[in-house]
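job 3f2a | input accepted
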Amino acid sequence: MCPPDTFSYNCLIKVLCETGNLLKAARLVEEMESKDIVHDCFTATFLVRGCCKIGLYYDALQYFKKFKDSGISLDGVVYNVAIDAWCKLGEMECAMDLFQEMMDQGLFPDKIHFTTLICGIAAMEK
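job 3f2a | predicted structure (126 res):
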């Protein structure tokens, strides 16, 4: 039997996050690390999005930072999820800083990123 790899773990993490089992998903990430199995931008996206899905925005942002600090290459999708988390917390300055950081990393915003920021600003106006 082949040992599990990043793809295998990501499949499990995705399903666990989609069903609200964040604790089990986080444990799998820890297991990956203990077995020296690298996580990737998909691992980050699933866990960050999973936290946001159940309103754990600060946890989502902590995971985002953890993955970013680990040196993996993050994509525009996970950046947008983190930007949205800051918007949901009403922290537009932090959202804009992260938006700028994303561009500084060579990632170019698309209409989804701009929509996220516009919705965040609109929510602040209410």
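job 3f2a | The mean pLDDT is 96.
job 3f2a | closed
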